């Protein structure tokens, strides 16, 4: 999915607002067992890790519409996040997302992260 490279670029440039712009305003994100709702909640989660991550590898494994008009799209992807001084991933696992078609294009409505 083309948005994987956009997300990776935003991480590399520590662009919290750019990442937030990929989510719809009432998005739900669950990461490391912590649930956050809305952009304010997401912002605190993203700000907690963005300065430690310098690059990300994202690989879409499944992408399929959830309805006949593709207003909602399911995506499963593998991810690995890397820091500035290590070849080993700081964090890796799987993410499941539901993208919602909005007037501004697809935005993340639900994100579930499973780390290994």
Question: What labels would you give this structure?
Answer:
116 residues; alpha+beta; Nuclear Transport Factor 2, Chain: A; six-stranded mixed sheet; 3 helices; 6 strands; 24% helix; 50% strand; globular
Number of strands: 6
| CATH-assigned fold name | Nuclear Transport Factor 2, Chain: A
Would you identify the CATH architecture? Answer: Roll
Instruction: Give the termini separation.
Output: 23 Å
What is the strand arrangement across the widest sheet?
2-1-6-5-4-3
**On the 0-100 scale, what is the average pLDDT?**
89
Number of domains: 1
Order of helices and strands: HHEEHEEEE
Residue fraction in strands? over 45%
In angstroms, what is the radius of gyration? 14 Å
Can you count the helices? 3
The biggest beta sheet reads:
6 strands, mixed
Walk me through what this model shows.
There is one protein chain. Helix content is 24%, strand content 50%. It has 116 residues and is of the alpha+beta class. The protein has a single domain, classed as Nuclear Transport Factor 2, Chain: A. A six-stranded mixed β-sheet has the order 2-1-6-5-4-3, with helices on one face. The protein is globular. The model has no long low-confidence stretch (mean pLDDT 89).
């Amino acid at each position: 999915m083309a948005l994987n490279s956009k997300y990776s670029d935003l991480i590399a440039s520590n662009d919290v607002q750019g990442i937030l712009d990929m989510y719809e305003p009432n998005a739900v994100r669950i990461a490391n067992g912590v649930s956050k709702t809305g952009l304010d909640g997401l912002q605190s989660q993203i700000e907690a890790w963005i300065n430690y991550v310098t690059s990300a590898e994202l690989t879409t494994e499944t992408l399929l519409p959830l309805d006949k008009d593709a207003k909602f799209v399911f995506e499963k992807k593998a991810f690995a996040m890397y820091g500035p001084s290590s070849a080993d991933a700081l964090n890796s696992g799987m993410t499941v997302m539901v993208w919602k078609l909005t007037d501004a294009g697809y935005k993340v409505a639900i994100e579930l992260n499973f780390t290994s």
